[in-house]
Amino acid sequence: MTTSTPVEHLDVVIIGAGISGIGAARYLKTENPGKTFAILEARGTSGGTWDLFRYPGIRSDSDLHTFGYEFKPWRDKQSIADAPRILSYLRETIAENGIEPSIRYHHKLLSAAWSSDEARWLLEIERTDTGERTRLSAGWLFNAGGYYRYDEGFTPRFEGRDRFAGTIVHPQHWPEDLDYAGKRVVVIGSGATAVTLIPAMAGTAAHVTMLQRTPTYVMPVPREDKIANGLRKILGDERAYALTRRKNIRKGLAVWQFCQKFPKTARGLIRYVNKKQLPKDYPVDEHFNPPYDPWDQRLCAVPGGDLFAAIRKGQADVVTDKIKTFTEKGILLESGRELEADIIVTATGLNLQVFGGAKLSVDGKPVILPETVAYKGMMLSDVPNAAFAIGYTNSSWTLKIGLLCEHFCRLLAHMDTHGYDVCRPVLADPDMPTKPFLDFAAGYVQRALDQLPRQGDRMPWLTSMSYHSDIKLLRADDITDPELHFSRAKVREAVGS
Question: According to the model, what pLDDT value does residue 486 have?
Fold first, then answer.
């Protein structure tokens, strides 16, 4: 006879101990206190993005009154905040809600296999610190790990890269001992990471150059929200935070809608602001006039206009050109100009990865993500008891995460009330037209569209990027839906329980 070790079973397994996973755990503890759960975190610490990235100046590109949780006020005077402040906020949330004992560090999900007979997922897990393999079973999977790879950033192939005699760094893997004092630095890229790095390094480095293939929309924003800080003195943290949050949600929506409705006017206004921030006779149209409309990609926020200040002081400059090859001394451009450098930073983006790269299967059949359609932007067609949390691309990420977590908790409560074990989204019309899951022009999204689920052409199969639409869909509307099928486990039905 042989005996097998019983597999621990949990009601919910959350993937990732970053801002989404911490939020999901808090909502579960508050709204569904009887549920057992654990957070699987592949790394050895909590905080996700805000602990992983260590490059100079790392900060949010959304205000913390909307990027923070609805249930926990942001009390710091900085509105556009740096990573240490955000990380402190997240770890306060863990401590205040007793979440730490539920986090299992160095636990990476390798695969999840659903059994309809037992109505549970069997999870294969690797201990990233020891290599040991373990198993868990779960009634629900909740993927809160975002959508990009933590172990690998995106770097395109650069001709002659091996010839460069200096140091090449990707921001996702910033060396703690990198000394750039007095060095010539070239930062390849023009997104949020690049516009953060350049002013942070300027003044310490001998000179910093932002090398971009195409320009990005860049807007100066206040580092502090004076209204929020004033309201806090009068009304206290809780009430001031709630009012500021509503104010900033409306403000963000108004800016996005204006850019969508009047793109030419928006482009002109951004250009006007940029020109005011830059030196006289600066070639604004060459370096700060993108070929696409505002908000086709995210606008890059620069608190206090720090990027423009570095340019005005001569500590940094922008070059718009294409790379021909790396050389021993730096980078040779297609124009024939050579940028000499001691350090090259490849701020060239992210690699996307859904469910942390784990393989999913349902009753022995692999789940092919591009063949699935997203239901309410949080579940996958024909995949039972699995939810995921993807935030907004046109607003603060966490605004949507909060709504998704609320809806998920309501869904669990509904199933408990009616004695259901299984929840499965099913398309009423399998021939419904579909389109990419994320309608966003950013390079990291476009490179991965063939690996992502699809979205439909109608609710509830549309992936909403509107907070006010999602308030209705996820908070106000009923849980039940003709295309959301509930059932009991086959094992329970067989014994009549």
Answer: 97
Residue 65 DSSP SS3? helix
* Angle, CA 390 vertex, CA 430 and CA 68 arms, to 5°: 150
Sheet harboring 338-340: ordered strands across?
323-326, 330-333, 338-340
Say if residue 466's pLDDT is above 90: no
Q: Which residue do the tokens 């006779």 mark? A: 281
- Kindly state the average pLDDT of the residues 321-334: 96
3-class DSSP assignment, residue 324: strand
Which of 16-20, 62-66, 232-236, 489-493 bottoms out in mean pLDDT, i.e. has the lowest? Answer: 489-493
Q: For residue 179, what is the enclosing H or E element?
A: none
Strand partners, 120: 115
Distance from C-alpha of 152 to C-alpha of 260, rounded to nearest angstrom: 33
What is the reported pTM? 0.93
Phi first, then psi: give them for residue 288, nearest 5 degrees.
Answer: -135, 35
Cα angle at 316 between 314 and 321, to 5 degrees?
Answer: 125
Residue 187 in contact with residue 210, Cβ under 8 Å?
A: yes
pLDDT at 443 over 70: no
Report DSSP state, residue 242: H
Report the amino acid identity of residue 409. C
β-sheet bridge partners, residue 343: 167, 185
Confidence of residue 491 (pLDDT cuts 50, 70, 90): low
CA distances from 322 to 16, 163, 211, 213 (A): 37, 18, 8, 5
| Cα gap 300→80, rounded to integer Å | 12
Domains of the chain (ranges plus CATH)?
A: 9-150+352-495 (3.50.50.60), 155-348 (3.50.50.60)
Query: How long, in residues, is the chain?
Result: 497
* Distance set, CA 483 to CA 219, 380, 398, 460, 463 (Å): 43, 12, 27, 8, 16
DSSP-derived letter for residue 8 is: P
Residue 393 has pLDDT above 90, yes or no: no
- Distance from C-alpha of 58 to C-alpha of 131, rounded to nearest angstrom: 31
Cα distance between residue 209 and residue 240, in whole Å:
41
pLDDT confidence of 1, banded at 50, 70, 90? Answer: very low
Which residues, 6+ apart, have CB-to-CB distance to 81 below 8 Å?
A: 59, 60, 64, 74
| CA distance linking residue 189 with residue 198, whole number of Å | 11
Please report the sign of the dihedral spanned by the C-alpha atoms of residue 303, residue 306, residue 309, residue 311. Answer: negative
Q: Give the DSSP letter of residue 224.
A: B
245 burial level (CB within 10 Å; 0-12, 13-18, 19+): buried
What's the rounded Cα separation, in Å, for the pair 409 and 37? 13
Q: Which residue has the tokens 């940094």?
A: 316
Percentage of the chain beyond pLDDT 70 is: 96
Gap between the Cα atoms of 244 and 227, Å rounded: 8
